[in-house]
Design brief:
The protein is an alpha/beta fold. About 50% of the residues lie in helices and about 5% in strands. It has a 5-stranded parallel sheet with strand order 2-3-4-1-5, sandwiched between helices. A two-stranded parallel ribbon has the order 6-7. Helix 5 (about 80-95) links the parallel strand 2 and strand 3. The chain starts with 6 loop residues before the first helix and ends in a 6-residue tail after the last helix.
Length: about 425
Amino acid sequence: MNINAPLAERLRPKRLTDYVSQTHLVGEHGALSQQLKHGLIASMIFWGPPGTGKTTLANIIASESERPFYTLSAINSGVKDIREVIDKAKQSGGLFTTKNPILFIDEIHRFSKSQQDSLLQAVEKGWITLIGATTENPSFEVIPALLSRCQVYVLNAFSKNDLETLLKRAIENDDIISKKVIKLKETDALLRLSGGDARKLLNIFEIIVNSNDSDSVIITDAFVLENVQNNTVRYDKTGEQHYDIISAFIKSIRGSDPNAAVYWLARMIEGGEDVKFIARRLLISASEDIGNANPTALVIANNTFQAVSTIGYPESRIILSQCATYLACSPKSNAAYKAIGEAQQLVRDTGDLSVPLEIRNAPTKLMKELGYGENYKYAHNYDNNFAEQEFLPDDIKGNKLYEPSNNPRENAQREFLKQRWKDKYGY
């Protein structure tokens, strides 16, 4: 054992039975357990947050399947390095045995298209079994040709029980940590700081234990926070976290939950998200999810965008919070959103239908002679500023594209339309 290695490395499990978490993959009926049991290892990609055991699983698979193991990091490897490893893999028996060598590529999402292309033949011919690891959605970051040749397995952030199991294992089994008498009285601060990242948890734990010269250490939340200066929120402004969290934010607003909305807003603010990006999404939500149920929502969202563009952080967090909670507490309607979607589909289905002559513009004498604008009824010349006439092309007349939702404002709109159009549109 290398005593200078971090605790997370010293505790890295060597067998599948020692692996903590991901039971959907490594449990008795898990996909990876079954592959190892039958000795048929497919090329695969592990997708999950940092510190969920992707590298560890790759090492265990290679060890328990007794296959040659090669590893590359996408950060500092190029096509030349890939070809050299593939040549070594072929020479080590990949052409003459069913036990193909395993090539593990960490952070495979960082490989360019040409680098990923260079793997295709080796995977296709069976010269190597590829195991890639990524924190980003492989649907976006891995080329389709390579993705189609691999199974994608999702690794989840460690649960509270999983993380506490790792802490107890460190206290009992690590040759260095176990020399001290450690009482794990409270774990909330440790778990919160780790963010579900097992590697981060163990390394923080080691720092805390080593910060005390005594042979006896009592771990409390206060003790942890005193010895850990900063907790950097994990938030990738360009990656999967970016899209997942903004999705959770908007869905919380749509679901009328201001508590969840401000939580996800805080996650983005703490992660340094662009204030204008958040404000733009609020603008979209005000129209898409609230619309005519409360037209003021769009006004507030637009004012929010203008305000935060001028002010910036940190004060704009208050304005964003006001807008997010207002939108979450507002009545909801997606009627306008659905109407334009159906109208666009109707246009795609029916093509460029002619504008009815009576509602065409007639700026010239010729156009008037051709009937442009003839029989047009100027609404303001009639009672209640309304005169029934046809505004849609003949081929699609009577199509109802806007269906008001069931809320006070849009119910009033429905009544207005019913009075004007009688039974034409079925309001």
